[in-house]
Write a structure and sequence with these properties.
By secondary structure, this protein is α+β, with helices and mostly antiparallel strands. The chain contains two helices and seven strands; from the N terminus they run E-H-E-E-H-E-E-E-E. It has helices at 18-24, 39-49, and strands at residues 11-16, 28-32, 37-38, 60-63, 66-68, 73-74, 79-83. It has a five-stranded mixed beta sheet with strand order 2-1-7-4-5. It has a two-stranded antiparallel sheet with strand order 3-6.
């Protein structure tokens, strides 16, 4: 059998919100992630996959439902939420 599945321990669940979901064309997906990466490196991959999200440096991340700076590590098994900065007024 040549079918390959990604287990939760070798992938991350990615959630997209608001404008990011509209631009990406989906609300959630699984990404393979065999080893930890920084948010900055992961966002570079996001921009490569969805160039319409550029510049990704403006996007905010939450890792396991906690707001996280781009320097944070994303580890296999994590849940990562991606969203636009919220402005008040």
């Amino acid at each position: 059998m040549t079918h390959t599945t990604t287990t939760p321990t070798s992938s991350i669940k990615v959630l997209y919100f608001a404008q990011v979901a509209e631009l990406a064309g989906l609300r959630e997906e699984r990404w393979p992630l065999p080893k930890p990466v920084t948010g900055t490196d992961w966002l570079s991959g996001l921009e490569a996959r969805y160039p319409q999200l550029a510049p990704v440096s403006r996007l905010k991340l939450a890792i396991n439902q906690t707001h996280a700076p781009h320097t944070s590590l994303i580890r296999p098994g994590d849940e990562v939420a991606v969203f636009e900065p919220v402005t008040g007024g």
